[in-house]
Amino acid sequence: MATTADIKIGMCIELDGKTFQIVDFQHVKPGKGPAFVRTKLKNLENGRVLDNTFSAGVKIEPVRVERRPYQFTYEDDLGMHFMHTETFEEINIDKNLINNYDLMADGQIVEVMFHTEKETVLSAELPPIVDMEVTYTEPGVKGDTASTNSLKPATVNTGATIRVPLFINTGDKIRVDTRTREYYERIK
């Protein structure tokens, strides 16, 4: 058992029979009344984020999780299929458990989070930055600057649409932040 003093961002806890990951927390000590901890919890079964408040010193149930590298192989009506990079064990994961799954290319290495006691998949995370190729975007016009204030839609090689600066053209290779779905930089 742990207490609210042990809370860290990224920690997984069990609450009401469900597994949650702590996205954000803040320890609050008001001038009047007892201290408490305000948290944002992500439900690892459906991806919803909810706010929860714990009284200071309350016991919480931490969950042991293990992260393992898996390579994306293909997608069908059963879900997304992955292969462990060392044991070659294959698993399939529902695409709702993967954040921004449409940014995942064939052969992409992802980190799959497992509940160690139940041996169930909790979520899969793409690397923070991925390299992609722009397959279609409106052509740039002479005079477009390097300003990132003006953005236009672009389709990348996985079929996802992201917003890119005006100077990006079809065929350019770019880096994309998978957490925010934002353009990061152009690759030469």
From TrEMBL:
Protein keywords: Cytoplasm, Elongation factor, Protein biosynthesis
Principal location: cytoplasm
Residue ranges occupied by any Elongation factor P C-terminal domain in the UniProt entry: 130-186
InterPro entries tied to this protein: Elong-fact-P_C, NA-bd_OB-fold, Rib_uL2_dom2, Transl_elong_fac_P/YeiP, Transl_elong_KOW-like, Transl_elong_P/YeiP_cen, Transl_elong_P/YeiP_CS, Transl_elongation_fac_P
GO molecular-function term, one example from the UniProt record: translation elongation factor activity
Keyword GTP-binding: no
Matching SUPFAM superfamilies: Nucleic acid-binding proteins (SSF50249), Translation proteins SH3-like domain (SSF50104)
GO biological process terms on file: peptide biosynthetic process
Pathway participation: Protein biosynthesis; polypeptide chain elongation
Cellular location(s): Cytoplasm
GO CC terms, sorted: cytosol
Matching Pfam families: EFP, EFP_N, Elong-fact-P_C
Protein biosynthesis recorded as keyword: yes
Location of the Translation elongation factor P/YeiP central domain: 67-122
Segments forming a coiled coil: none
Family: Belongs to the elongation factor P family.
Function (record text): Involved in peptide bond synthesis. Stimulates efficient translation and peptide-bond synthesis on native or reconstituted 70S ribosomes in vitro. Probably functions indirectly by altering the affinity of the ribosome for aminoacyl-tRNA, thus increasing their reactivity as acceptors for peptidyl transferase.
Name this polypeptide is given: Elongation factor P
Species annotation: Alistipes dispar
